[in-house]
Predict the 3D structure of the following.
Amino acid sequence: MRLRSLGRLGPADAVTVGNAALGFLAVVAATVDIGLAARIVLLGAIADGLDGVVARKYGGTEAGPYLDSLADVATFGVAPATLVAVVARREWGTPAALLSGVSTESLLALAGVVVPALYVAAAVTRLGLYTAYDTDSDETVGVPTTLAATIFGAIVLTGYRGAGTVLMGFHDAGFLLALAAVLTPLMLCDVVYPDLHAQDALVMGVVQAGAVLLPGLYGRGFAFGLLYVALAYLVLGPVLYWRR
């Protein structure tokens, strides 16, 4: 018996499938260490850029665009949403508290499940539309899921200090939940984002790698840099970037 897929997939597809596996690992890690989950999501973002480089060098396959979107659902849709849901559960508990009476905390616990679910739904919809209409274009409609996930990963790493540590300020459950609520409709909006130029994508990958690999203050410094760059592209990309 032979594996049917081996003769039909290329090197870039192997990178893409590996990205999907990273998405699963990020989901598992989120239940143990939020910082580790954020690093794995950013590692997936690096892999997402790398598969394009490999495809340009060795050629792509017809399955490539579909595999890419499926992998992105796992790494940039389900994994960030799980991260938010886990942080929300640690702070507010589960929606089961509604059975014993409505309170602010129980409503927040419910939102901590519903909002991440809507985030995943928006990511799946956006990626399906991208595969159908934008694969061969140098621009895309709506906030890219990779960008949204990068923002989540960078924000967590700017303030996380180890497993079991409560995230405070811009990194607590309320802020992450609000961020998910904002990014969910933005993924489905009609704002057009140009693809990153090759040299800018390389710089982004280097900064992501620094945030993932470097310990302590060095890693946090790269995480802050990544956050600033990602937010700049989120806000200014549709207006200024493609005029270069």
About this structure: The helical segments are 11-30, 34-58, 64-92, 104-134, 145-159, 173-186, 198-213, 216-240. The CA atoms of residues 25 and 40 lie 7 Å apart.
